[in-house]
Design a protein that fits this description.
With 503 residues, this protein is of the alpha+beta class. The chain has three domains: 89 residues, Ubiquitin-like (UB roll) (Roll), CATH 3.10.20.740; 113 residues, 2-Layer Sandwich (Alpha-Beta Plaits); 217 residues, Rossmann fold. The protein contains 16 helices and 22 strands. The strands form six sheets. A seven-stranded mixed β-sheet has the order 15-14-20-19-18-16-17. It has a five-stranded mixed β-sheet with strand order 2-1-5-3-4, with helices on both faces. Bound molecules: iron/sulfur cluster (2 copies) and FE2/S2 (inorganic) cluster. FE2/S2 (inorganic) cluster (FES) binds next to loops.
Length: 503
């Protein structure tokens, strides 16, 4: 541990951390642009300067490690004046196009101008150096060079995290610009992260730009469903549609990053949703749908219940309880036919299901294909698009009574004799257990779409129609029972972290 004095107060912090982090642990925020905790420090923006006793010149906090006995001032007159001058320098050629900039509302320049700048520009508009305004860097990212403050976070991200040399700082002085290497584009599978870490509006997301002002967004802490890594994310909605996914920092899971596939894995939540229960004779209100499902299950000589590694632990547990309480002779097996993708050395895991581990720990894994081939008369499929992943199974299921609890009009729902709408993970609470056995909670950001209900509520309704007793007063009761019945899930891990900007 190191004892140092910060703004006149003695503090104790771990050795070997820089002054920005040391101050943060002491609840003092030192403004900074180029420093990012996930990248090597470069010390180029000069925004983080502090005064250190015994050293005549101001020092950059991001490149100075805390030391025993150090006396640091972050708010002295000299520091405050330097910060204002740095702000004036950084804004020297800035186009001030905040009204049409996607970063407005979460921009480091706006924030620090109000906190540390408040100067009047000494440069006439016509004297500003003009640069390229709409540079197509790659499939996901557009660059506005005039807004760039040359902090090099984006370059360091590509070099150090993505491991590809795609971006570079070219030219000199006022003509300096970020660009791609000749003949290359910004197309690494993690490229979207440069938009999150760009502290200004220079790098914007093609998927999000001009969609909605950020202050209209409502945000919830969530978990990416894209693979078994379970990256922590912010899920952001406007007008009850998901508009954007951003990484949520968690050093134990995804650090500050997410992959581009995960970033764009939200469009299905807004599209092709099943809004009402549908049977062969038309649509049903929820209660009627539950009765119809109960009738089909009761009349069948053999029943197979299919669970999914995309379901939450709580919904999987509810399905187990449903079987025990309402259909004790039914077979219950979980699995998935989703094709794996290529693992990489950064985050992506081969299994594209977020809860394979939870399903295993709940004892629901088994030979799904074998179970389907035994020829059950009625199959209840819960949150599992069997036919979308294995269309050839359609022959096997032909003539069977198929009931699908599905959020979307996927191939399985379309083939079912009865389809009942259920909420996606964006509309309910739940938890998934990642490949390392870490159980993480997600929270709703949307209101339930149409007549969709949480899976466990639909199961309760069907059980009621089967005259079985199955009811949870609320989600928390279900969660408590789930963790009690399966201690191997380990309880909920901490999932809240900071944002990607870390300004
Ligand atoms: S584009 Fe953004 S992240 Fe890259 S150097 Fe410019 S300001 Fe920094
Ligand atoms: S690595 Fe997996 S969990 Fe993480 S963002 Fe990508 S798809 Fe989602
Ligand atoms: S010089 Fe320290 S944050 Fe940029």
């Amino acid at each position: 541990m190191a004892k140092f004095t910060l703004n006149g107060v003695e503090r104790e912090v771990p050795d070997g951390i820089n002054l920005i982090e040391a101050a943060l642990l002491s609840k003092v925020r030192i403004p900074h642009y180029c420093y990012h905790p996930g990248l090597s420090p470069e010390g180029n923006c000069r925004m983080c300067v502090v005064e250190i006793e015994g050293i005549p010149k101001l020092q950059t906090a991001c490149t100075t490690l805390v030391a025993d006995g150090m006396v640091v001032e972050t708010e002295s007159e000299k520091v405050i004046q330097e910060r204002t001058e740095v702000m004036e320098f950084l804004l020297r050629n800035h186009p001030i196009d905040c009204p049409i900039c996607d970063q407005a509302g979460e921009c480091g320049l706006q924030k620090y101008y109000m906190e540390h700048g408040l100067h009047d520009s000494r440069v006439a508009v016509e004297e500003k150096i003009l640069k390229r305004k709409r540079v197509d860097l790659g499939p996901l990212v557009v660059l506005d060079s005039e807004r760039c403050i040359l902090c090099s976070r984006c370059v360091r991200f590509c070099d150090e995290v993505a491991g590809v040399r795609e971006l570079v700082l070219a030219n000199r002085g006022g003509r300096s610009e970020i660009t791609t290497f000749p003949g290359r584009t910004l197309e690494n599978p993690y490229s979207g992260n440069v938009v999150d870490i760009c502290p200004v509006g220079a790098l914007t997301s093609k998927d999000f730009r001009f969609k909605v002002r950020v202050w209209f967004l409502k945000t919830a802490d969530s978990i990416c469903p894209g693979c078994e890594r379970g990256c922590n994310i912010y899920l952001e909605q406007y007008q009850n549609e998901v508009q954007r996914i951003r990484p949520r920092a968690n050093p134990d899971v995804n650090r500050w990053w997410i992959c581009d596939d995960g970033r764009l894995d939200y469009k299905w939540i807004n599209r092709d949703r099943l809004l009402r229960a549908e049977g062969e004779a038309g649509t049903h209100p929820p209660e009627r749908a539950d009765e119809e499902a109960a009738r089909m299950l009761k009349e069948a000589s053999s029943v197979l219940l299919v669970a999914s590694p995309r379901s939450s632990n709580e919904n999987l547990f509810a399905l187990k309880r449903f079987r025990d309480a309402a259909l004790p002779r039914a077979a219950l097996v979980g699995g998935s036919f989703r094709k794996p993708w290529e693992e990489d050395r950064i985050l992506k895991r081969p299994d594209r299901n977020p809860n394979r581990k939870g399903m295993e720990l709940l004892g629901l894994s088994g030979d799904l294909e074998g179970a389907l081939r035994t020829g059950p008369e009625c199959v209840l499929v819960v949150e599992n698009d069997l036919l979308g992943d294995r269309p050839e199974l359609a022959d096997l299921l032909r003539g069977k009574k198929l009931i699908a609890l599905a959020s979307n009009r996927d191939a399985t729902a379309e083939a079912a004799a009865l389809r009942i709408p259920v909420c996606t993970y964006a509309e309910t609470e739940g938890s998934w257990t990642n490949f390392e056995g870490r159980t993480q909670a997600f929270r709703p950001v949307l209101k339930a779409v149409g007549e969709s209900r949480p899976v466990f509520r639909v199961l309760e309704g069907i059980a009621r129609a089967l005259e079985a007793s199955l009811a949870w007063s609320d989600f928390e009761t279900l969660r408590a029972e789930t963790f009690q019945a399966a201690p191997a899930l380990g309880g909920l891990a901490r999932t809240s972290g900071g944002g990607a900007h870390a300004l």
